[in-house]
Automatic annotation (TrEMBL):
UniProt cross-references to InterPro entries, sorted A to Z: AAA_22, ExeA_AAA_ATPase_DNA-bind, P-loop_NTPase
Highest rank taxon of the organism: Bacteria
One term of GO molecular function: ATP hydrolysis activity
Location of the ORC1/DEAH AAA+ ATPase domain: 131-245
Protein's UniProt name: ORC1/DEAH AAA+ ATPase domain-containing protein
Name of a matching Pfam family: AAA_22
Protein species of origin: Moraxella caprae
Amino acid sequence: MKTAFNELGKSYQTVANELGISKTALVNAVVHGVFPSKNTKQFKANLANHFIKNGVSVPSILTQSQNPKTPISQDKDELMLLRKSTLNPQTRRHFGLAKDPFDDEIRSSDDIFKSDDVRYIRERLYDVASNGGFLAVIGESGAGKSTLHEDLHDRLFKNGKPTVIIEPYVLAMEDNDIKGKTLKSVHIAESILEAVAPSEKPKRSPEARFRQIHKALTESHKAGNRHLIVIEEAHGLPIPTLKHLK
């Protein structure tokens, strides 16, 4: 669904505002395929209508029926989320605030505080996305890694860089099968095929599947596209997968 969403040419916050939903719920649906446990059918219908209204093909995941055997409960997480605080126009006018100070949406690179380290990492990310390479961004929780990730998306889109961004599904990912689900090279390969050639079905045998992916990447490159793999929470990757990525 990420490919279809990118065709809208809008930010997550803009679409969320137009649909009257939270940005978190929208990102979970588009990036991770996780829908709210309540009013799921209505959520999918509203999102599908938004794609149609903007002339974009509706992703198949929005037309699939929900599996009642595996409900996703987010009640606990929702109780932990803080309600968004806003200022009414009269308060903002009284204090001379042209912009809502509680609005953390990043609309341009000007909204990012650029220390020397952030400025360097931001340029390195863009260089790797444009010219190829391998880069690991390391930082504490809340240091701004996800912000730089969103900024890279926006920067590539605004600069007209024909880049296919591949983001493997990493929910519940751990570095071994005892703690959780490991991300193997075959999963990354499937993500590549889904992003580059979403209409193709993966071949069954590993040999045929990797040849299929190689052919799809070659054809996409000939069409002028560059390809970028972004893995969130990459510290949870098992060592064998890291070696395969090399």
